[in-house]
Amino acid sequence: MEKHTQxxxxxxxxxxxxxxxxxxxxxxxxxxxENLFDPVxxxxxxxxxxxxxxxxxxxxxxxxxxxxxxxxxxxxxxxVRVDMLIKTSVQQFIKNDCEAGIGSSGIIGDRILxxxxxxxxxxxxxxxxxxxxxxxxxxxxxxxxxxxxxDNAAIISFExxxxxxxxxxxxxTLGRLIQDTTIAENLDRTIVNLRKSSKGLDxxxxxxxxxxxxxxxxxxxxxxxxxxxxxxxxTKEAERKAAEQKKK
Length: 248
What we know:
Elements: H1 6-33, E1 40-47, E2 58-61, E3 64-76, E4 79-87, E5 99-104, E6 111-115, E7 132-134, H2 139-168, H3 172-179, H4 181-210, H5 212-247
């Protein structure tokens, strides 16, 4: 008598087949992530601090993932070597003067290695070549800078609040100007007096023009202005004729 039914054997076979399919897909995805199925070449760089970069971290060039970090080795107390595996298909774009830097995929994402673009006339990078690096900015340094900025903003806000309180209470020149109606009325009177003075000056000038003692002076000034205008027109006309003569 059989211990297992035919239905059980079918289920077992489907389970095994499903497990194999999942295993193959996982191998394919991992291999694609680690560039196991793509031809690659290796380059390296060094940092003083890798700032959380890990083996297997992505490498990006122009915003595109082009490889992974193959190995991270401490050379001495100030130097860490990073080996990179880059797809051979992008080797034609990576130049000797490209720089490697450490960034993150998003604001709080995983650390990645970023290769900047080089100059167009620089030679292409070769297998096993070394490229220069830019040290990453630590998160602690960024937070410290933001804290200093926040403290300065708080001080400025406090001082502005103190100034506004003084103005509203009528202290200082600006406060008195805003709060004291007498000063505002005096300013209005001053402006009115200036307008009257200007009007009176215009009337005096018109009267002086009509006075026979000054009439000759104003007529002479008018003639000089008219003569200047005629001379300017004559000069422009001569320049125009000279230009036409040169064209001929």
